[in-house]
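Lab notebook, bench 4. Still working through the backlog of constructs that have no structural model yet. Next entry is a single chain of 200 residues. Request: give me the structure tokens for it.
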Amino acid sequence: MHLTFPAILVAARPHGETAVITRVLSEEYGLVAGYVAGGRGRVLRPVVIPGNRVAVELAAKSDSQLPFLRLELVESRGPWLGEPLAASAIAWVTTLTALVLPERNAYASLYSALGATLDAICHAPSARGWLRGLVGYESLLLRELGYGGAPPPAEADLDALLQMFARTAAPLERYLLVDRKGDGMALRAMLGERLEKLRA
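Model written out:
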């Protein structure tokens, strides 16, 4: 099996001395896990950052084998990782995506929405400009996986969006992260604390 496709990298964890196991979300193939040789090396380390857009070349001998991935950077989120609020938001939406989506199921709307949410986080003048997108992405995830979830109304102000963000924690924890809530909900709690400072 040999495939090439654009994707958003949503998770990366070290494997052995130099490799990385990554998860990427693509429009056509959904969530795909793969082995990236040399992923911890100087050349690839800036590529395997969650949130990055990448061009993927996948090679596998069978469907049951963890495929080998070659990644080429298309767009980096690295410049925003030094900003605590943006970095928390990027970490949360990518981690949530990697934890809850089943592998190899296409979710074209989620792929588009995740890309748009990440773009907003990185390019909006402030969190007030991207919070609606983040809340909308969480709601879309709940809907796509069969657990309801209403999008935020267009006229919602900052207080209303923060209240929606707070209310969405319960269904996310109960339905999507019931067996995997540790790291994911800790990231969300940190993001929530940072967002609350916007009220000041």
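Notes after review: The mean pLDDT is 94. Residues 149 and 186 are 21 Å apart (CA to CA). Flag for follow-up if needed.
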